[in-house]
Amino acid sequence: MVTSNKVFYFCVQLNKCLFCLLFSLLFSVSSAFANNPTKTTDQPVKQWADSVVQVLAYKGDQLLNQGSGVVVTTDGVVITSAHLLAYADRVVLQGDDSLNKSAAIISKNEVTDLAILRSSTLQQEPVKIALNSVSNNDSLEIAGYWSLSIEKARGSFFSFSKRPKFVASELHNKSFAKALLNGSGAIDGRYSLIASIGRGGYGAPVVNRCGELLGIVSPKREMTLKQLWKPHLPTGVEVIDISILTAELSASNIVTKVADKPCLSAIEQQAQAQIKQQAQINKAKKKIKEAEKQVEKEKQARKEAEKGRSDITEIVSNINTKAESLGTENIEIKEDNKILFWSVVGAIAVAIFIILLLLINKKKSSRLAKEELKAATASFGDCRFEGVDSSGAPVAFIVLGKDLMQRKKGLVVGRNPDLSQVVIADDTVSREHARLFVKDNRLNIIDLGSTGGTQVNKQPVGPEGLIIIAGDIVEFGEVRCTLSILGGI
Q: 142, 127, 145, 143: which is closest to 74 by C-alpha?
C-alpha cells in the first residue's frame, strides 16, 4: 500500500514537471510572437473604433471567455461571435470607460457564429454599415481587444471539464491591425484575410478605408470549440460578410445606420477624376466650336454690310451725277445730297467700327477657349510611387501627369480624402502632408508642415521645396516610396 502511494505521488510530481515544461515552451512562443514585426502597435484612435467593445462571458463569477464586438445601433445593440457565449450564463460589455455593462442575448446562431446582444446602458456611437461588400481594392483594418502574447493555460487534470483551457483576461486598451484580402472576395458569406491578431479579436469589426463595417472576425470553420478554448494566436482569419450580418439583424427587426454612398478605393477615385477631366476637355472643345460658328456668322454679316455700303455709294454717285447735269439751278439739291452722303458714310463707318469690335471680342473668346483646351490637354508623364507603408505592407499609387499640368498649385498628398487629391491611408501621413506640382517641366515637392515630415533621398523637404526625378526615394512620414515617371523625366 505504501508503495502504491509513492507511485501515485511520483506520477503527480512528474505531471507537475511536464506542465512547467509546457508552460515554459508556450512562454517562449509568445515572446517570439511579441517580437515579431507584425505586432500591432499603438495607433491614434479612429472615430469608427469608438464603436468597438470588449465582450466578457461569465459562468457565475468565473470568467469563461473574452472577445470583441461592435455597436451597430444607438440603443446599444452589439454584434459579436456566438462561440464566445458557449456555457455562459452572464454577458458583460466593456467600452472605453472600462465599466462593466450587463448585456442581454437577443439571438445566437451557432451555424453562422453570430450573436446579437443589447445593453441599455451602453452609450457608444454605432458604426456605419458599408453599402458595398469587400473587394480586392479595399484597404482593410481591424480593431478589438486582444494581446499578441499567448494566454497562460489553466492547470487541470480533468480533460472532460467544460471550462476553457486558458485564463481569460480583461483588456483596457484596443489593438489595431491592418489586413489584406486573401482571395477574390466573399464566398458563401465569408472571406479570408491575411492578418495577425490575438484570440480576443474574434467578434472584432473589419472596416474599409472609409471606416464602414464590412464584417466581423470569425475563426476558421473547421476549428472546434475545444480548439478555440486553447491558447492560440490566429495568423489568418475568416470574416463573416456584411450581407450575413445584415440578414441576421433584419431577422431580429434591428435597424442600423447605413452609409450614404459606396466607399471608393484610391484607384476608383482616380478613375472618377479621369472621367471628370475628360468632361472638362469635351466642354472646352464645345466652347471652341461655338466660338468658330460665331466668327463665321460675323464674317457673313460683314460681307452683307460691305455689299450694302457699295450699293449706297452707287446710289449717292448717281444722285451727284444727275445733280451736276442740272447745273447751277440744282446747287441746293447737290448740297443736300452732300449732307446725305456724309451722313450715310458716317453711319457706315460706325457700323464697320461696331463689327470690328465684335470680331476682336470673339477672337479673344476663341483664343481663351483654345488656351483652356491647351491647359486641359497639357501632357506630363504619369508619376508612380511604389513602396511600403508604416507597417511594412506594400503600397502603390499613381499621380496623373495631366492632373499636375492642369492644376497651377499642383496636387495635395495627404490622409484626408476631403482635403487631399492624392490619398495615402496611413496614420503617419498628415491630413495635408505635401504638395506635388510641375514647374518649368520639372516635378517639384514641398512639405505642408506635416507632423511626420517629408524627405527625398533622406534629405528633409521644407516649404521652399525640392525638384524630384525618377529613381528618387520619397518618404511621406513613414511611408517610403520610389518614384518612377512613365514616359517622362
A: 127
Do 213 and 207 meet the contact criterion of CB atoms below 8 Å apart? yes
Which parts of the chain sit beneath pLDDT 70?
Answer: 1-45, 155-162, 266, 268-269, 323-334, 368-378, 488-489
* Cβ contact 411:383 at 8 Å: no
Residue type, 350: V
Cβ-based neighbour number of residue 113 at 10 Å: 22
**Burial group, residue 413, by CB count within 10 angstroms (0-12, 13-18, 19+):** buried
Q: Could you tell me the three cell numbers for 335?
A: 448740297
pTM over 0.70: no
Which residue, 58, 47, 98, 107, is CA-closest to 78? Answer: 107
Which residue(s) pair with 240 in the sheet?
190, 216
d(CA 385, CA 374): 27
pLDDT at 421: 92
Name the phi and psi angles at 215, rounded to 5: 160, 180
Report which DSSP code applies to 97: T
Contact present, 471 and 451 (Cβ < 8 Å): no
Q: In what order do the strands lie in the sheet with 422-423?
A: 422-423, 411-414, 434-439, 442-447, 466-467
Distance, in Å, from the CA atom of 404 to the CA atom of 246, rounded to the nearest integer, reads 42
